[in-house]
Amino acid sequence: MRVLGINALFHDPSACLVVDGTLVAAAEEERFSRRKHGKRPVPFSAWELPEQAARWCLAQAGLRASDVDVVGYAYDPALAEPAESLGLHDPWDHLRQMYAREAPGFLAEALPGLDPAKVQFVRHHVAHAASAAYAAPNSATGSVLVLDGRGEATSHLAGRRVGAELQTLASQRLPHSLGLFYEDLTAHLGFLRSSDEYKVMALASYGSPRMAAELRRRVYSTEDGGFRTTGVDWTEFCPPRGADEAWSPAHADVAASAQLVLEDVLLDLARWLHGQTGDELLTMAGGTALNCVANSRIVREGPFSRVWVQPAAGDAGTALGAAVYLSAMHGDDPAPMGGADLGRGWSEAELEAWLKTAAVPYERPDDVADAVASALAQNQIVAWFQGRAEFGPRALGHRSLLAHPGHSGNLERLNDVKGREQFRPVAPMVLADRAPEIFTGGPFPSPYMLFVHDTKPEWRNRIPAVVHVDGTARLQTVDAAAEPLVAAMLRGFERRTGLPVVVNTSLNTAGRPMVDDPRDALECFGSAPVDLLALGPFVVRRGSVFGRGDGR
User: Fold this and answer.
1) CA atoms of 428 and 414, how far apart (whole Å)
2) Radius of gyration of the chain (CA)
3) Each residue of 5-36: pLDDT tens digit?
4) DSSP states of 153-188 as a string?
5) pLDDT at 454
6) Domain Carbamoyltransferase: where (predicted)?
7) Given 3-state DSSP classes, what are the helix, strand and coil percentages for the chain, each rounded to the nearest 5?
8) How far is CA 26 from CA 66, 155, 308, 360, 391, in A?
9) How far apart are CA 316 and CA 66, in angstroms?
10) DSSP-assigned letters across all residues of 255-283
């Protein structure tokens, strides 16, 4: 069964291809169009489709649009209701719904040869749930929790997977939405809604949750597996911040308060769900599942012995969910997700051709991992472009910026390179078998950078660049068998420095999508003060291209 999944309606348009239950390819449209998040989440853009991502997914499997058996569109307009009846102020939502109803025709136009009758609508939160429940390892039976801004008429799903069946046990009707609650605060704090929620999570670490008690009167769980989010006027808690204004302690305090209340409600929902199922495994998806601080509290304080979060948990992941859900409904046995490296990749010959076209001096060292380890040990910043691109918002060792964790100034240096706020943390990358020596208070392994861990006190001064202001770190563990090149780089760095950790952050600059193809990598290298580009087995040194201007 060949199933193409499509996410298009709200934000982060994406496509995914599942063949006979196995995930073959997945990619976000932003990686092709170079527009952050693909488009803005407004009704006027709802017609835009992930055309380039869909065509690439089909090409990756050697398929034409006419070869597809079914297309899953991750929204069902038949379940939608007028925005005003849901208590939402969205006067143009009817335009969004019209575009959703017409999606089969739009897709047939975008993908010549596709029969529009093959397009099936999949409920938005079912697509989210399937993306986690079917993709998780060892998940034939398990609970699933989904929370985001909104779907057709709800903002939440609590359910259970039993074999091929996906059961819905509870859902929360709009306008109550934890995702919209957090989005509204994001906008109030001067950040971009449906884009910068992670900045609020980072800012929360700088504040005190002194407003949490008042917020709990308005945002709380109910006894039926649902919750309420009513009457929050953020101007009562702090003044709005302009996008270019400095943040104040009051802004950090309201972020900390909202973060704590969000975590409390999520814990209540997880406990309610466990009371219904008694399962050991909880899988999670939806934009709220990208809140790694909340995920870690669910691990530490929740009743489930195992928690797995789908790495493209936001709306991009619903393309995966729609595809795998319809695949399972048609009798295929869903295979677990083997990793997030589901996007584009290039052969060595293709990469070398890009370098020759760019007319830049390059080398092919005997061991690129060792060459990078040497550069990092000399406190150089490295752009690391290897293998297939990641699906989802995290750089996981395929499209990464790497640096030395032992120099505290490297946090500011990397934020300057990327052109972003200085309160933003960067992540530690470490071999899975070494992680428990350095970090605690979170799950191991943690390959998708979706949980925070406490850094052990004796390590905080040794790797200061990756330790957040509250002593935590958003850890990525590396499986040496799955990622031998990254593992070799980490070992080479440790031989030189005694540190088994390397700084990892996404290979992009502020406001731009993560680097995806070799041209993107070369453009980023040329425009940002990065010392070395590792493009497959090749390296490009800044001094060779531009001459030395950094004093080294």
Assistant:
1) 13
2) 23
3) 999 999 999 999 999 999 999 999 999 999 99
4) SEEEEEEEEETTEEEEEEEEETT--HHHHHHHHHHH
5) 97
6) 2-70, 117-324
7) 40, 20, 40
8) 19, 24, 19, 31, 6
9) 24
10) HHHHHHHHHHHHHHHHHHHHHHH--SEEE
Q: What does the pLDDT look like over 432-490, one tens digit per residue? A: 999 999 999 999 999 999 999 999 999 999 999 999 999 999 999 999 999 999 999 99
Enumerate long-range contacts of 181-186, CB under 8 Å, 24 or more apart: 181/219, 181/229, 181/232, 181/258, 181/262, 182/258, 182/262, 182/288, 182/291, 183/149, 184/232, 184/234, 185/234, 185/254, 185/255, 185/258
Which secondary structure element, helix H or strand E, spans residue 309, and what is its range?
strand 306-309
The predicted structure's pLDDT at residue 420: 82
Q: What's the angle, vertex CA 427, arms to CA 282 and CA 395, rounded to 5?
A: 75
Q: Distance between CA atoms of 260 and 147, rounded to whole angstroms?
A: 16
pLDDT in tens, 520-546: 999 999 999 999 999 999 999 998 888
Q: What token pair was written down for 188?
A: 């109030």
DSSP single-letter state for residue 402? E
Q: What is the pLDDT of residues 262-279, one digit of tens each?
A: 999 999 999 999 999 999
Among residues 77, 81, 57, 80, the alpha carbon closest in space to that of 67 is found at 57
Q: Which of 459, 455, 426, 429 is nearest to 441 (CA)?
A: 455
Tokens for 327?
A: 């695949």
> What's the rounded Cα separation, in Å, for the pair 411 and 423?
9
Q: Token digits for 464? A: 């200061």
Query: Which positions of the chain have pLDDT values less than 70?
Result: 548-552
- Whole-number pLDDT of residue 459: 98
The confidence score (pLDDT) of residue 548 equals 55
Question: Which pTM value belongs to this model?
Answer: 0.95
Residue environment code for 167-203, b if the CB has 16+ CB neighbours within 10 A, otherwise e: ebebbbebbbbbbbbbbbbbbbbbbbbbbbbbbbbbb
Half-sphere exposure of 169 (CA within 13 A, CB side): 23
Q: What is the pLDDT of residue 421?
A: 83
Helix H or strand E encompassing 440: strand 439-440
Asked if residues 442 and 461 have their Cβ atoms less than 8 Å apart, the reply is: no
Instruction: Give the phi and the psi of residue 411 in degrees, each rounded to 5.
Output: -65, -50
DSSP label of 13: -
Tell me which residue has tokens 């760095």.
493
Residue 504 contacts residue 400 (beta carbons within 8 Å) = yes
